[in-house]
Specification:
The protein is α/β, with parallel strands linked by helices and 493 residues long. It has a domain of 341 residues: Amidase signature (AS) enzymes. Helix content is 36%, strand content 13%. It has an 11-stranded mixed β-sheet, sandwiched between helices. Helix 4 links the parallel strand 2 and strand 3. Helix 7 packs antiparallel against helix 15 and helix 9 crosses helix 11. The longest helix is centred in the C-terminal third of the chain and has 22 residues.
Length: 493
């Protein structure tokens, strides 16, 4: 593959400004990489002609000195974002062929800053999944392989196509969405950086909704610096989104000072689980040592309601999904199955249009919202969610960031765990609590498993303090020196 595909976003911007290569050359190199890697199934819609047009426009702006923050940078866009006139289906059959007449706010912000879209990235259907195996367009393949066998691995989910594309050097960066860990967990599985901003930092307008009180846009990149650049371009107040917070977007890149002396790092006792793999615990302890040795203060804390996070999430999220997905009925747009009366049309359309996992979550959500069970399940879950958020609030009175594992294991093979929904849901056990509390979290690749697969550590920060969070994360990135490339890039796959 071309050396241009090995650049970071920050490096590519320097090269473009110095005229070492053009935006068209950079984009063309990534298009060729995408064409050579179609077996990974990372993109469900390729927009290469569109990308070259944008690259040419970027070159003109660069020549005129009018370049934006991401001018000429080729990225992938999760299929959950509506992109005007371009395939936007949440990887569901019920929306197959949908091309919206409008642009999401986040993608519009990126185009305004000069980013170039290579295509729409594969994902779990309606963002429901932890392995990217529920997509109507087929599984995404992780560019990593285990040393013990050559079985194809899952990239994590739901933003698995975005993560795989960045890890395989098919795009310099990508955007995903995180509802319960759907940016951070695939980032850990694919050996890249994944950032979930504070809920409300990025607009949800134009994102196809899963769980409205949890969904949040964020970047997947190969470095923390690149994540800072992308978030600066993505974020901002949007009056079209009632949950968007009207706060100035800081210069996140400027926040990366490297100074963590005196940083108070919290270690939550509840994240040390029975049966947690030794290699995950060892890496976590190594992370603690790295911070302590650099002058940070390590503080043991307690988040007593963490143990209720997963059951709370799997009541709240399905309830909201059952409400949001009620709009897909075959009447106005998308798939329509004809035959029989109106009720039969609804039933046939939704039975054929939604996959098994989406149907499962709709049924769970409808059940917990039903008249006889609303108080017992949904209302109680919302009360517990408040207690979870309060735990974090009390912890952040004592510490600046929390350090935890990102996922309870390394990537697993396609076909493993698939028949056990509970085992699949447990993939989000370390990421869900921050999502329920609306807090920012970032996963950084920091080591390898015994089988040669990437493992990540997660940092959780205070609301709207993404700059401080990324500064702490960049220290982790620097000291870990994770430079291992996936076997796909070295001819091992």
């Amino acid at each position: 593959m071309s050396a241009l595909t090995d650049l970071t976003i920050a490096q590519s911007r320097i090269g473009l400004e110095k005229r070492e290569f053009s935006a068209r050359e950079l984009t063309d190199a990534h298009i060729r990489a995408c064409e050579d890697a179609r077996e990974l199934n990372t993109l469900v819609a390729e927009t290469f002609d569109h990308a070259l047009e944008r690259a040419d426009a970027a070159d003109k702006r660069l020549a005129a000195g009018e370049d934006g923050l991401l001018e000429g940078v080729p990225i992938a866009v999760k299929d959950l974002y509506c992109t005007q006139g371009i395939h936007s289906t949440a990887c569901s059959r019920i929306l197959d062929g949908f091309e919206p007449p409008y642009e999401s706010t986040v993608t519009e912000n990126l185009w305004r800053q000069g980013a170039v879209m290579l295509g729409k990235a594969n994902m779990d259907e309606f963002a429901m999944g932890s392995a990217n195996v529920t997509s109507y367009y087929g599984n995404v393949i992780n560019p990593w392989r285990r040393r013990s066998d050559n079985k194809p691995l899952v990239p994590g989910g739901s933003s698995g196509g975005s993560a795989s594309a960045v890890a395989a050097h098919l795009a310099l960066g990508a955007i995903g969405t995180d509802t319960g860990g759907s940016i951070r967990q695939p980032a850990a599985f694919c050996g890249i950086v994944g950032l979930k901003p504070t809920y409300g930092r990025c607009s949800r307008w134009g994102m196809i909704a899963f769980a409205s009180s949890l969904d949040q846009a964020g970047p997947l990149t190969r470095t923390v610096e690149d994540a800072a650049l992308m978030l600066s371009a993505m974020a901002g107040y949007d009056p079209k989104d009632s949950t968007s917070v009207n706060l100035q977007v800081p210069d996140y890149r400027a926040a990366l000072t490297g100074d963590i002396n005196g940083l108070r790092v919290g270690i939550p006792a509840e994240y040390r689980l029975d049966g947690m793999p030794a290699e995950i615990d060892t890496l976590w302890r190594q992370g603690v040592d790295w911070y302590r040795d650099a002058g940070a203060e390590i503080i043991d804390i307690s988040l007593p309601h963490t143990k209720y996070s997963l059951p709370t999430y799997y009541i709240v999220a399905p309830a909201e999904c059952s409400s949001n997905l009620a709009r897909y009925d075959g009447v106005r747009y998308g798939l329509r199955e004809t035959g029989g009366d109106l009720t039969h049309m609804y039933e046939k359309t939704r039975a054929k249009g939604f996959g098994a996992e989406v149907q499962r979550r709709i049924m769970i959500g409808t059940y917990v919202l039903s008249a006889g069970y609303y108080d017992a399940y949904y209302l109680k879950a919302q009360k517990v969610r408040t207690l979870i958020a309060r735990d974090f609030e009390q912890a952040f009175a004592k510490v600046d960031v929390l350090l935890t594992p990102t996922a309870p294991s390394a990537a697993f093979a396609i076909g493993e765990k698939m028949d056990d929904p509970i085992a699949m849901y447990l993939n989000d056990i370390f990421t869900v609590p921050a999502s329920l509390a609306g807090l920012p979290g970032i996963s950084v690749p920091t080591g390898l498993s015994e089988d040669g697969l990437p493992l990540g550590l997660q940092l959780i920060g205070r609301p709207f303090e993404e700059g401080a969070l990324m500064n702490a994360a960049q220290f982790l990135e620097t000291v870990a020196q994770f430079t291992v490339r996936p076997p796909y890039l070295t001819g091992g796959v």
